[in-house]
Amino acid sequence: MKSSIYHDIFMNNQKIAAIPEEFLDICPISDEDFHNKMALLVKEPGFEHAVKYALPDVDFESFAQDLLKIYSKNDFQEKVMVPFLKMLEAKTSKGISYEGISNIDPMKSATFITNHRDIVLDASFLNLVLLRNNIESTEVAIGSNLLIFDWIETLVKINKSFIVKRNVGMRQALDAAIQLSKYIHFTINSKKQSVWIAQREGRAKDSNDVTQESLVKMLSIGGKGNLVDNLLEINLSPVSISYELDPNDYLKAKEFLMKKKNPLHKKSQRDDLFSMETGILQNKGRINFSFAPPINDKLLKIEHPEDKQEALKQVCLIIDNAIHSHYMIYPCNYISYDKLNKVNKFADKYTHEEKLEFENYLNSQLAKVDIQNLSKADREYMMRMMLIMYSNPLVNKLKATNC
């Protein structure tokens, strides 16, 4: 393998790895290059606009000068991202809780694989939970389709993100998958650094979280053994993310309606940016992270691991079961199930006041849909899709726990 030193990685003042050349276009920015990249970033009008949008009271010039005093990714997270995320937690949620943190071995790197609800905050809040427990934050997989402007790529790379190449041709897709898998294996085993990745490409807009076989297949390419052996190398550790409310619920319902009317409908870059802004800045209610044990023991029990297709299916089922069984279920999930199915099966799980409050919330969200001349049927369809979004975590948990 052709390699050269892009930057050296140190632990306890001992060099433990050098970044191979083949990873330079996707890996996070080195600490050696951090200050130079930051100096360029603070001059970007788009970055200034984003900062002022997220922090309306900020003195940007003073903020930029503070950024230029930072010289490493970890310091950036400690001095900028952690305070920002704490502010978001306080202003846009009822707090972040977590369970199963003892399932993490802080001395062993892991691949945290989660369901995907929010474009930006899933990994960000996960890292906040880790840092609160004195566990090093992860490197974060982010799709290139979200890097709409060059400054966004710079920003995510100084925040310990690596790039998942999207929208490439069929010939390039395999090369990209091999590169990505090798980088994740390298990060876990040589850099001794944990990573975060979602269980599927993009969010499950109906909240029916199912692991994509193609994702597991990609993760397994990087080793030299069979599929199971290669996955054992990266210590897959599922995490369930449960938001009480999804600020993008009405936008997802709108997208479902648009695709119903026109199956070729595609979101614009502006839509993606607005979804990111909405997810970051609007109300999420309660948030919970539940850490399941690593699945290595279960992987070792897969029969006939040499049968790659069957092994892939089994791995996906193991991940899905771990995520589904560890959801935090809120009153709105029970309410949505009962309303969707026109039953009172879970009426003991919520009060009349909670039901009225959630119904008012759903109606207020639907009122934000900016489509002219919506018919009664259109509104009923979008309401049904939102009820499906909120009931699916409960449905999947019931299946996973055999209730």
Q: Please, could you describe this protein's structure?
A:
The protein folds into two domains: 22-245 and 283-325, Glycerol-3-phosphate (1)-acyltransferase (3-Layer(aba) Sandwich); 247-265 and 272-282 and 329-403, no CATH class. It is built from 16 helices and nine strands. The protein has helices at residues 31-41, 45-54, 60-67, 73-92, 121-132, 150-158, 170-189, 213-221, 227-232, 249-261, 269-281, 296-299, 308-325, 331-341, 352-366, 376-400; strands at 8-11, 14-18, 96-99, 111-114, 139-143, 161-164, 195-198, 236-243, 287-291. Strands 3-9-8-4-7-5-6 form a seven-stranded mixed β-sheet, sandwiched between helices.
Quick take:
By secondary structure, this protein is α/β, with parallel strands linked by helices.
Globally, the shape reads globular
C-alpha termini separation = 51 Å
Poorly predicted sequence stretches spanning 5 or more consecutive residues: 1-7, 10-16
- Which class of secondary structure composition applies to the elements? alpha/beta
CATH architecture of the largest domain: 3-Layer(aba) Sandwich
User: Total strand count, please?
Assistant: 9
CATH topology of the largest domain: Glycerol-3-phosphate (1)-acyltransferase
Give the C-alpha Rg.
22 Å
Q: Supply the number of structural domains.
A: 2
Series of H and E elements? EEHHHHEEHEHEHEHHEHHEHHHHH
How is the largest sheet built, in terms of strand order? 3-9-8-4-7-5-6
The CATH class label of the largest domain is Alpha Beta
Major β-sheet, in short? Answer: 7 strands, mixed
Query: In what range is the share of β-strand residues?
Result: 5-15%
Mean pLDDT: 93
Percent range for helical residues?
Answer: 40-55%
